[in-house]
Specification:
Blueprint (H helix, E strand, L loop, with lengths): L1 H7 L2 H6 L2 H30 L12 H27 L12 H25 L7 H28 L5 H27 L20 H10 L3 E6 L10 E7 H7 L1 E8 L7 E8 L2 E8 L2 E4 L13 E10 L10 E11 L5 E6 L4 E6 L26 E3 L5 E2 L4 E2 L7 E2 L8
Parallel strand pairs: 8-14
Antiparallel strand pairs: 1-2, 1-10, 3-4, 3-7, 4-5, 5-6, 7-8, 8-9, 10-11, 12-13
């Protein structure tokens, strides 16, 4: 009681209870409610604008729909709070049941807590990114949450002595809700600064030296290849074999990586030649009797004009803030085909299937690619012999299934040869 008397004897308290003071309070609360509304919709737009890229992508559609629903509820809450605050300006309340206690309860339990819970779920499915900016932001937000908790508790329990039992009960629930909000907010901003290892253990990296691409390379991208179905542009091979094009890390390092595949497959599908050129390396094979054998590069067929050429461009696009956390890899394929009159035509084609995957036998072999160790024969991989990234990439503390691309994006702007 002594605390109440001391507070009510202050100049601030006496001013708040004057007519001008009530208007000042109304406009402060109005601006605070608008800010809260903007933050809610900013959160929704931030989530909605996330696009699939390397490893990371948007949350599941159901989560995005639920967030949208609660953001719509936030508009209703804003209207209710504004009406309630305007009603408090009157000498006699026009809407007696609409009190500050009721509006606080509705906003906390039907808007703030659900959205913070959804934010926490998304955070638990994403890897932390400790940077100096995020650490400073987390510190400011945690301080603001604590201050808000203290101010609302003081306003609810010390400022207003004319409260009904129902209002006191709602204030008790609201205070509990604010305490829960504080825990959720602090948890979100703390977890955002702690990435996890491949085993799901929380790491404590130095935010000054932290690089998200290096972290993701070590945890996800290393030893994962890009595999393309062969033949690239038709389904005549019913077994759907895949050939290795490149490691993801090779594309990231080169930024723009060119791969050429030369073959006379269209002339004889049972007996043909296949050459792959990348990073100034050239490996050629003969397919005969369902087997691939290394060909001598000095043989005349290497210079033959009968070969169709598939010019493949793999381009690593940089990270784009929250939209593409690690950027993405795009792919373009042009086919140079020999005509009957001896000329060649170029056409842009759609590969049937291009995957990010790891060879199941990779762990039992020192070989990472046939272009790096061309003394071993080229393998045709069946899809069953590959582990696609949705089976090996799990993100965040919850080890959620990756939500990014399963393969490179098709991009017609990479190669201008056609």
């Amino acid at each position: 009681m002594n605390i109440k008397k001391k507070i009510k004897n202050t100049c601030c308290w006496r001013f708040i209870n004057t007519r001008p003071g009530k208007y000042v309070k109304f406009y402060i609360l109005f601006l605070f409610d608008i800010l809260n509304l903007i933050i809610d919709w900013y959160f929704y737009l931030k989530v909605e604008l996330i696009k699939p890229g390397l490893v990371y992508g948007p949350p599941e559609p159901l989560i995005r729909q639920i967030i949208f629903g609660f953001c719509c509820i936030s508009i209703i809450s804003f209207i209710i709070e504004t009406i309630q605050n305007a009603d408090d300006l009157c000498e006699t309340k026009k809407i007696s049941f609409l009190t500050q206690s009721l509006s606080n309860f509705l906003v906390i339990f039907f808007e703030d807590i659900p959205l913070l819970t959804l934010n926490l779920i998304i955070t638990l499915c994403r890897d932390g990114e400790p940077t100096i900016i995020s650490v400073v932001k987390a510190s400011i937000v945690i301080f603001a949450v604590i201050m808000r908790f203290v101010l609302i508790v003081v306003l609810n329990w010390f400022m207003d002595s004319k409260k009904t039992r129902s209002s006191i009960f709602l204030d008790m629930l609201s205070t509990t809700g604010i305490f829960l909000m504080a825990i959720l907010s602090v948890s979100i901003h703390l977890l955002h600064n702690f990435p996890t290892s491949a085993q799901g253990d929380i790491e404590l990296p130095n935010p000054v030296n932290f690089n998200h691409m290096n972290y993701a390379t070590n945890k996800y991208l290393r030893d994962v290849g890009i595999f393309c179905q062969w033949p690239i542009d038709n389904d005549e091979n019913d077994k759907k074999f895949y050939i290795w094009l490149s490691d993801i890390t090779d594309v990231i390092q080169a930024t723009n990586l060119s791969v050429k595949i030369r073959s006379d497959f269209t002339l004889n599908k049972e007996k043909y030649n296949l050459c792959i050129e990348k990073l100034d390396k050239n490996v050629c094979y003969k397919f005969e009797n369902a087997q691939l054998k290394i060909s001598n590069e000095d043989e005349n067929f290497l210079k033959s004009n009968m070969f169709d050429i598939y010019a493949i461009e793999l381009v690593k696009s940089p990270a784009q803030g929250n939209k593409y956390k690690l950027g993405f890899i795009s792919l373009d394929v042009n086919r140079f085909e020999l005509n009957k009159n001896g000329t060649k035509t170029c056409s842009v084609i759609n590969p049937r299937s291009v995957l990010y995957a790891r060879d199941k036998d990779f762990s039992n072999s020192e070989e990472t690619s046939y272009l790096k160790h061309n003394e071993k024969k080229l393998e045709f991989f069946s899809k069953k012999s590959l582990i696609t990234v949705d089976k090996i990439w799990f993100t965040g503390i919850f080890k959620c299934k990756m939500s990014g691309d399963l393969g490179p994006k098709l991009n017609r702007k990479n190669n201008s040869n056609c």
